[in-house]
Amino acid sequence: SVKTFTYESLNNVVRLINGMSAMLLAILPGKASILEGIHGWELRPTFRGPRLPRWMENGVSSFNHFIHELSVDSDTSSSVYYSSDGEDSDIYPGTPISQSSRFSRESSFTRTKLNRSWIYWIRCLISWILFPMRLVLGAPRYFFSSAFHRDSRAPARSRNLHPSFANSPRRLQNLKEHFVQRATDRRRGVVEDLHLAIEIFIESAFDLVHKAAHCLLAPEIPLEGYPDDNDPAPAEKKTTFQGALNTDARTCQDVITELGYPYEAIRVVTADGYVLLLERIPRRDSTKVVFLQHGILDSSMGWVSNGVVGSPAFAAFDQGYDVFLGNFRGLVSREHVNKNISSRQYWTYSINEHGTEDIPAMIEKIHEIKVSELKAKQSDLEVESNIDQPYKICAICHSLGGAAILIYVITRRIEEKPHRLSRMILLSPAGFHHDSSYAFTVVEYLFLCLAPILAPLLPAFYIPTRFFRMLMNKLARDFHNLPAVGGLVQTLMSYVVGGDSSNWVGVLGLPHYNMNDMPGVAFRVALHLAQMKHSRKFVMFDYGSAASNMEVYGSSEPLDLGEYYGFIDIPVDLVAGRKDKVIKPSMVRQHYKLMKDAGVDVSYSEFEYAHLDFTFSHREELLSYVMSRLLLVGSPSKQMSRPKSLKLKRKDLHAGISK
């Protein structure tokens, strides 16, 4: 009774919060459509009812049994389960990335609940009518069973009180969905942790009272309901808060291997000492290579987050490509060859370093691996280490990754070094940002005005402590359990980024935001983006003084990369999203115009996508387009030499970039 009372109280508080969020969503202009098609019962947050304490299992009263069944039955639509020992269940709730599956399941469960309710009352009526006949016919059977099967009756009753969870229809339904979408959420939310903690406290308190009463009233009688150490029969474990943190810290490796794909992790060290993780879904004998590079506040997880059907990495592998997933520097764990590097030293980099240090190190590592593997497979293959290569590599980059790959290609061409790429597919690439929302304009001026003050105090933007990272990881689960609260957070985040309709709540639920690590944004990276927006050009980082710029670039002004698009000697496919409010289509068309004027083989396409839809949403149309562009890459051949007609505008530019 106490458990049920506290459970219902907590559930009502959560429902109140969720209901108020739904009311706010209905009031906010243009955001009522978020709840369109969702009925009241679907908005009601639910989680499993309290379980019977172990000392009641063999001697539960009819009242307590009724209370227990009432709690569990009232929570039929719950999508959250705990194992008895506090560990993860085999079947996990759906991720925040896909809430539609939860709604469809709950609709079928509600119909089932209504049917069971009618069946229950019909059975009660029939049982009441047939009670005299049952009494007359059942008495002899009762005495016979009591005489010959007394020892086996208690275990049977125990099993009936707790039917096998594995045999329930709901378990089977969840099992089917588990195989369809295995990249699921394993964590408990904050509300679920609170509920479990309260239940454990109540059970412990009553357990203590029960033991004390037994010792005082009947110390000579063995205490029933508790497992005996000498009894080999398995017993249900006590509810514990084991794994209390219970955050979802899966890695890209976990997702890939769970889905049955091969995996390889490669440690890459940049020229300035940063340690990067280059991940691979290997096809060692393939001469077709795909390199995927993520954007800001993201990781390689974005390319595999939609499972087998909707992820670009798996689609490319299934088409016969050797897939490499790049990861930029910028993790909270601060991987560096210098183990004692300070936070300020680690975060001292801009987008320049992404393009001139990170990507070159990863591409060269890919080249080294592929040449070695293909040489070992084909002994008669002759490879010229710096010019010819026995494979073709295509780069697919999103957002900040697109800007970095452009910096990489242009600077490598200026330095007269091979970039080894055969094609670039840039999904909503960064670089031009002057056509943006009012919110981004405010942030731009704040950065430019306060940069001298903030730079010494704030080296990067990330969640600094493990506790708050854990809290965010769990709140992402709560946003899934509470649809209206999740919708409200989605709406507020959409307002912050200028109205972009990407699934921001789903992105927060990705496990690379966990208590141990998360991608961050260096202050200089954010400042670099503000400089691009302010200058209305795709420029390299401005170090703030003519002397500093002269030392790096050989000029008092940073390099304007748009003026050097003529150095791009490979086909480029630009893709924009009509609903993208972070990098608007007009800004992607700016890349296209400059490339077209410079004679680059470039194409431009638009889709009805928001900014994160290119990686975090299942878009079959986009996958088909990307795969079709990959097929345009021909067989391995000698890389084009640098056009002689292109001359550098700055005499010392080569030496400056080398620095």
Automatic annotation (TrEMBL):
Record's protein name: Gastric triacylglycerol lipase
InterPro entries linked: AB_hydrolase_fold, AB_hydrolase_lipase
Record-linked Pfam families: Abhydro_lipase
PANTHER family given in the database record: LYSOSOMAL ACID LIPASE-RELATED (PTHR11005)
Record has Membrane as a keyword: yes
Entry keyword set: Membrane, Transmembrane, Transmembrane helix
Keyword match Cytoplasm: no
Residue intervals of the Partial AB-hydrolase lipase domain: 253-307
Parts of the chain that traverse the membrane: 118-137, 445-464
A biological-process GO annotation: lipid metabolic process
